[in-house]
Write a structure and sequence with these properties.
Low-confidence stretches: 206-216, 296-306, 388-392
Mean pLDDT: 79
Oligomer: single chain
Strand content: 5-15%
Strand order of the largest sheet: 3-2-4-1-5
Radius of gyration: 28 Å
Largest sheet: 5 strands, antiparallel
Distance between the termini: 40 Å
Structural class: alpha+beta
Number of helices: 26
Helix content: 40-55%
Number of strands: 9
Shape: elongated
Length: 595
């Protein structure tokens, strides 16, 4: 059996294994590479070369850059702003996500955009109580559609623009692809809003990130500062519930006055608002103007989490000496050098001030302090350490560094347009990562936990398979098949044939590889038929970005696991989208680039 047929058979087997999902997709990729080596199609170095490809380091670095946005609360802030616009309406959320993703991907590349917006969309799904699977596939598809709209939208567009110069054509201008790209993107968005949204699975909502991380509801106190914009507003007008996800369950005014709040109760300066919410929502208060977390002493927000200072959840044990004692009577801050930010008491709302609340067995305290000061209390049986929650708090003081790191990456990735040299994408992303580490926006200990290594293994294996397609000339074999069988049906049929072939090759190969494989054959065929080769080059360019059929496109792989999708979810929804994009592209391209 020739290497071509071995490669194509292994491709078919891999697709079947991907579809059945009996074996994890990254394991299928490893089996595929091993098979290619054992059958002699690839040498061992060739089979493992994918693991050393620049894209592996680049995507790994993108995970870390995105982690910087998450750790500093920027993702949460963006999610809250988008939620204000769309609310709980799934239709408008889907529209907003796809439009934002497409717009960003037109200048930032679709993989970068998907990685950046992934945690935002998961947070939006949680807020709106919508299953993440309803929003994550539209995110990936929106980013892919947007990437086709400009020259810099994907590296594939840049690669083809460079390659066509070898055939005597001018490179693409930055907006040459925009008109058709935008029209196709609009058609794709309309399909997802009218049809695709109904076909999306309803998965993941019952196990939201909040439930996975077992975040408890806490009661805490918030001081209204003199500069607060909430002063003289009613509780309803302040939108504390909507904007901060906190419920105001009491107001303490002055020394003795306690008020059970109604929506029409007006907030006054120096009011102590008793609020109930999750850890992440309570800690978010420190990012709001005019509000301050009030604990058993005036909390210095600057040291909420810095150096050795961390956040912990601890439970009062059955025989603890703390039972029946208040934080004030214990002198908790003075004697233990620990600060209680909030108290969780199952099925009971705490209205009193935290410092005067008698503690009970089972109370869970959100404590700020150093681990070495918490551990003796755990050893002595006073407290039970439930979990460290520092990772859930936001390093808001590092936000500018997180933005600077991501901005540095974007700026350097576009260096060829304003510098005499082009800085490789992998170097740009690594410099961004180094900036995060140098400024301690990301801690070294958490660095590798931010990377999805299963995704990297899958991509590396498929890069190696793309090498096999090129080495055995299986790609050229398929291109010649298109030319020989579609030529007699006219130029539109030939154009459609090369489009379909490119889409098919983008599944096992990278988009750039698929485009560069088909491009020379398509251009030579056009010249032989007396047709405009640029028309064929443009069609191949668009086709290389139409990766909706399977979750093997990097942007789709990013949402595959968080959305808990099955392989056939992409086939079912993506196949119709692929057909729609195909029809619009084959119709529009000859109108703007004449045969």
């Amino acid at each position: 059996m020739t290497p071509i047929y071995i490669t194509l058979i292994l491709l078919l087997v891999a697709v079947i294994l991907f579809a059945t999902e009996k074996i994890p997709v990254d394991v299928v990729g490893i089996i595929l590479v091993i098979s290619l080596v054992l059958t002699g199609v690839l040498t061992a170095p060739e089979g493992l070369a994918g693991f050393g490809d620049n894209i592996i380091i680049t995507i790994g670095g993108l995970f870390i850059l995105t982690g910087g946005l998450i750790k500093t609360g920027l993702v949460d802030l963006m999610g809250r702003r988008l939620y204000k616009i769309a609310g709980n309406n799934e239709f408008f959320l889907t529209l907003l996500i796809m439009v934002v993703a497409a717009a960003l991907a037109s200048v930032m590349k679709n993989t970068t955009t998907t990685a950046m917006l992934l945690p935002v969309v998961i947070g939006l799904a949680e807020r709106a109580k919508i299953a993440p699977s309803k929003l994550l596939m539209p995110l990936a598809f929106g980013a892919i559609l947007g990437g086709s709209c400009t020259l810099i939208g994907t590296s594939t567009n840049l690669a083809v623009s460079s390659a066509i110069q070898r055939y005597g054509m001018e490179p693409y201008s930055i907006f040459e692809l925009t008109t058709v790209g935008v029209l196709v993107a609009i058609a794709g968005v309309i399909y997802m809003l009218v049809v695709g949204i109904r076909m999306l699975p309803n998965l993941g909502g019952e196990d939201s990130l909040t439930e996975q991380y077992h975040i408890r509801e806490y009661v805490s106190e918030v001081l209204v500062l003199p500069n607060s914009p909430f002063i003289n507003k009613t509780i309803a007008e302040s939108n504390i519930n909507r904007d901060l996800d906190l419920s105001v369950i009491g107001i303490i005014r002055g020394k003795n006055e306690r008020i059970t709040p109604t929506p029409n109760e007006r907030i006054q300066m120096n009011d102590l608002l008793v609020v109930e919410g999750k850890i992440s929502d309570i800690l978010r208060i420190k990012t709001e103007n005019g509000l301050e977390i009030k604990s058993d002493f005036l909390l210095n927000d600057g040291v909420l989490e810095s150096g050795e200072v961390e956040l912990f959840e601890v439970m009062i044990m059955r025989n603890s000496n703390f039972i029946g004692q208040s934080l004030k009577r214990l002198g908790f801050r003075q004697n233990y050098d620990l600060t209680v930010l909030a108290i969780n008491r199952h099925n009971e709302t705490i209205i009193q001030t935290l410092s005067s609340t008698p503690l009970r067995f089972g109370d869970v305290l959100l404590v700020q302090g150093k681990r070495r000061l918490v551990e003796p209390l755990v050893v002595n049986g006073e407290l039970l350490l439930l979990e460290e929650v520092s990772a859930k708090s936001f390093r808001t003081e590092k936000r500018n560094w997180a933005l600077a790191a991501f901005g540095l990456f974007i700026l350097l990735s576009l260096s060829k347009y304003y510098l005499p040299i082009e800085i490789p994408l992998v170097i740009a992303v690594l410099l961004g990562v180094l900036l995060l580490l140098a400024t301690k926006t990301i801690r070294y200990a958490e660095l590798y936990s931010l990377i999805d290594f299963r995704l990297l293994v899958l991509i590396a294996c498929m890069i190696s398979f793309g090498t096999a397609m090129e080495k055995t000339h299986a790609d050229v074999f398929l291109a010649d098949f298109i030319k020989n069988n579609f030529e007699r049906f006219g130029p539109t049929a030939v154009l459609a044939g090369f489009y379909v072939l490119t889409v098919a090759l983008t599944q096992p190969m990278s988009n750039q590889a698929a485009a560069l494989v088909v491009l020379p054959v398509a251009v030579k065929t056009a010249v032989a038929l007396g047709l405009n080769p640029r028309t064929f080059a443009v069609a191949v360019t668009y086709a290389a970005s139409s990766s909706f059929l399977t979750p093997l496109e990097p942007a789709c792989v990013l949402v595959y696991t968080p959305g808990r999708y099955r392989f056939f979810d992409f086939v079912k929804i993506g196949s119709v989208l692929t057909i729609i994009v195909f029809i619009f592209t084959i119709w529009l391209v000859p109108l703007f680039w004449k045969f």
